[in-house]
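Ticket 4471: requesting a sanity check on a complex prediction with guanine. Repro inputs:
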Amino acid sequence: MAARLLSGHEAAEAVYAELKARLQGLPFTPFLRVLRLGEDPASVAYVRLKDKRARALGYRSQVEVYPEDFPEEALLRRIQELNADSEVDGILVQLPLPRHIRPERVLEAIDPLKDVDGFHPLNVGRLWSGGEGLFPCTPLGVVRLLKHYGVDLKGKEAVIIGRSNIVGKPLAALLLREDATVTLAHSKTEALQEVARRAEVLVVAAGRPHLVGKDWVRPGAIVVDVGINRVGEKLLGDVHPEVAEVASALTPVPGGVGPMTVAMLMHNTLKAALLRRHGASS
Ligand code: GUN
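Returned structure tokens:
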């Protein structure tokens, strides 16, 4: 039996419909500011997508582009200005940053109430301690995608492969908040394939093209592929397409988690606007 394909485009459209309805009665327009340094082609493409989507929703959106050698101190000063600007709801600095810039200094400079990426240590702490805050977009997108397709995570055996600050670690926290039983595996995990085979929900965010083959997957498992690997002309996920033969559901690459990341950035931008004005998001 072939796995059901979990479309991120479909689930993202549902998020946009919900956001449009919530925007209707609001006396303000959410304002997103995206900062990009240098001309990394993937970053250029991602930032364009974010800006386009924000405008399509009716948000205000402005992208600021700085040269690759833009000084760290100047970037920190610019963030302080945006923090102090009462019109600005969300600030996002596209990663990766040039090597001379310390990402932790930049991420910690952003006002936690405007931190639509959810990377500030205060938001990380709130995520793990169960509080209200802004949480990272890709993990939020994974959970929203699963919920859109009716996956009940409560008590489920979830395995994540990949322990990045952007995906694996925050996803572990979010899945715990959904009452899943979570294993956070990574490149040093012993018997990784056997660990993966325990999963009822397997999320792969390892950044290694086609790492997970069908022998890694428990029959009937739900598999989420967060990988986007450029190999020559092709975009490959971390999951081999043969996994569709054993999984009950699988996200495509592209068109799975990718669209959900942008959708949850829009969700976070509205949430930030509401948090800053009312101290609550709904
Ligand atoms: N680069 C890759 N993913 C992300 C993300 O979620 N946020 C930012 N700011 N940069 C990224």
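Notes from triage: The mean pLDDT is 97. Leaving this open until the requester confirms.
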